[in-house]
Design goal:
The protein is mainly alpha-helical. It has one domain: MetI-like fold (Orthogonal Bundle). The protein starts with 5 loop residues before the first helix and ends in a 9-residue tail after the last helix. 28% of the residues are buried.
Amino acid sequence: MLHGYGSSILDGAWLSINLALLAMAVAIGLGLFGALCRLSPLRWLAALGEVYTTVVRGIPDLVLILLVFYGGQDLVNRLALALGYQQYIDINPFIAGVCTMGFIFGAYLSETFRGAFLALPAGQAEAGAAYGMAPWQVFWRISLPQMVRLALPGFTNNWLVLTKSTALISVIGLQDMMFKAKNAADATHQPFTFFLAVAALYLLLTSVSLLLLKGVEKRYSVGLKPAEL
């Protein structure tokens, strides 16, 4: 059915999964940093977080991918030349993809985490401080675990969007399943067959992800009473 390209597309799917997982790890770190900046009493930190989320959310993902890959590569080589390094530095498309997707979705997650932090009752942090906890202990033991529960629905949505957005990375030459499907479609002149196969793989990946994250959300909701209508 796939004219011998099935294993190649599956290899590309595995690469896409790795890209999505690593990019989400980067996004979580940047998202927490951005949320804490937005909530900081220091005006310059709050402004930094505001600029980050506003700029990234206002530029299309594809444009940012091209800017980071081509613009970043040009900048790195200019800096290397200025430092006396004469050889051309070629940025790995996988690393560029991880960093770019993580940078983009870090901005979206920062809004998700910020909203979750703001939804926490202020009295809990005050009680922790009154108990003698240091600020980092209040954050780690009280605020963060509860924030995770509140942020899970938004996190799930961002993960699903990120997973689908990995298809954009094929434009910089990363041999993910979209790249492999395009090559197979060009070779066999059957684009519908291969793009339909890729669509099915993305649907499978997002469906499994949704089931797993729903399970995590249910686990974090143990002991909580459902809201009364």
